[in-house]
Amino acid sequence: MAYRVGISGWRYAPWRSVYYPEGLPQRAELEYVSRRLNSIELNGSFYSLQRPTSYQRWYDETPGDFVFAVKGPRFITHMKRLAEVEAPLANFFASGLLALGNKLGPVLWQLPGNFRYDGPRLAAFFESLPRTTVAAAEIAKQHEDRMKDRVVLEAKHDQPMRYALEVRHDSFENSEFIDLLREHDIALVCADTAGKWPMLDDVTSDFVYVRLHGADELYVSGYDDKGLDHWAARVKTWHAGRTPTGGKTASPDRPPRHRRDVYVYFDNDVKVRSPFDAEALSARLGL
Length: 287
Description:
Elements: E1 3-8, H1 29-33, E2 39-42, H2 44-47, H3 52-61, E3 67-71, H4 74-79, H5 86-94, E4 104-110, H6 119-128, H7 133-140, E5 163-166, H8 175-184, E6 187-192, E7 207-212, H9 225-239, E8 261-266, H10 274-284
Parallel strand pairs: 1-2, 1-8, 2-3, 3-4, 4-5, 5-6, 6-7, 7-8
Helix pairs in contact: 5-7, 6-8, 9-10
């Protein structure tokens, strides 16, 4: 499926009786939203390692063609700052995401706002990432002993692993960084953050990853019809193999390439805008 449009997380108390129908049990929320959208970005994995039983349940509760993006742990990005992360990476890959099988989509790494561009550190981290689920399973076997009773160490399917990187410091607005991402086939996240952090349109992989955090106010404001039309047009341009015009790029654009998959996740959840915006964008894309 060329377009994946969804939300970042789905379990929010303010959504109940607003987006979720009155009386819908909390345990049925994923089943409900997965019949209305075709993807979700798992963000609980950013805050703590999830359990294999959770990943398996999420797999079982969603349609066969559903896809989950998985957000990498902040312990790796914010605390270890991508250095000396062999054990944390093994723990992450062992924690259960391989149970998602064919529903496993890209892994998202989000850097903190005070993380400045560091080419050698980024390159070393990129080189440590497994490129297939079978390779990820081999890394998972190096997990710490404390996790031995809650791990998944086999890949259901041998499939490529995709990675996306979201940056939040102006020092990343340089062509060397874009070239590094292209060299390692890492997608640069195009993040709309109401002007708070950089938003670059550079395409650096065979897929595009978009995070919409709010048009005017971070995590709060929604997208009106004009804004949704704007993003729908951009998504179609990316999918066609081109780069949208009018945005900011840090490196010269490359010639048009083959069609790309595009993943879009709304993260403007504070006032219950993200699920409605995601449904509206999905409709514009014919999903």
